[in-house]
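This is your field. Have a critical look at both lines of this record:
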Amino acid sequence: MIPLNITTLTELTYLFGRDMAKRRSGHMLLVASLMAFQAVPSYAAYAATKAYVLALGEALHDELRPHGLVVTTLCPGHTATGFDKGAGATTSALLRLLTMKPRPVAASGIRALLQGKAMVVAGMSNKMAAFSNRLTPRSMQRATLKRIVDA
């Protein structure tokens, strides 16, 4: 996960970004996660790599904009992709209620990319969760997330 979400992503954005900058045109959509906004017990490494994706994407948005590029970072919440099954993970009843279908998540990312936004959180409940991080102590965030993912 660390090589994919950090090393490979950094190398690919550098290679493609350099080529797009020469053409003075291009779009990149990076996929982080709602977990990028907080530490998540039981998903520590995953959340940390997604925080890296978010920070990289927001920085590249500003760095590459003068060269004609748009970089947008999509931060979806739990999405029905089959990832859980492939990873052998179980999903709590609450998390299943908050799960989005892939099509609206993808549409949200593409719409934000075409609008030139730096970042988008897909889905209203996910937007509210991301915003609530500004209002709650980090210890409370971790405790809440632990209950959600471990239920």
